[in-house]
Sequence to fold (260 residues):
Amino acid sequence: MKIHIPTPLRSYTGGLETVSIPGATVDGVFQQLTVTYPELKPHLFTPEGKLRSFVNVYLNDDDIRYLEGKQETAVTDTDELTIIPSIAGGVNL
Amino acid sequence: MLRIEYADYEALRAHGEETYPNECCGVLLGKNTAGEGDSTETINHVRQIVRAGNTRTDSAHNRYNIAPQELVKIQRQARGLGLDIVGFYHSHPDHPAQWSTTDFAEAHWLGCSYVITSIEQGKAVTTNSFLLRGTGEDDKKFEDEPIQIDIPANLAASGAANQKGSA
Fold:
């Protein structure tokens, strides 16, 4: 399936905006992604292996955190994953 | 360096005036290009700005957040245009155009430009850009970044004529 990489992480995918990774579940695809592009791993996951809090992952138009099957959700080759770090801020109080 | 068309620069400042006293936010689409000659400087060249909604309705006067789903759509839009997300902008109502500790803690797009406009009593005053440098969360830092504003030749000519007229 296709995975869309945000601008700051493309230096770890050889500059590619979109990479094709095989897998049957969201988790399986992610595991393979970090095998193919190992430098991505610390930017996506904590040392404990949890997805970093500021990294959002969308399966097509759905946040994987809210999918019924979460990261075990089944995927097909025509699905698309988008990795999108959060954007927030504001003035100091 | 951040390079941006005059019309886009004015539009992002106007956005901050419109949402005052709340913060506005948006996304800068463009291309990251290498600087000239031996320079290691890179240029975030803006080709289009996209307004985004501020989801922090609970505290919109001093916080902003762009819904990730909206970002996914904007990134898709950028892809369709052959562009990338090269930065973001937001406003600081009645606060200086300097990044805050909140801005820094919530900044994760390394290599991207973060543009901040101070809005004083509803009027856009100062616009600054900060480049988020580093290789990860441990060594990231904001650096002051010059802004190059491209002014169309016809506008520049009329501006020059006006200046002559007023001299």
In short: The helical segments of chain A are 26-36, 41-44. The mean pLDDT of chain A is 93. Chain A touches chain B at residues 4, 6-8, 11, 17-18, 42-43, 54-56, 58, 61, 63, 82, 84-93 (CB under 8 Å).
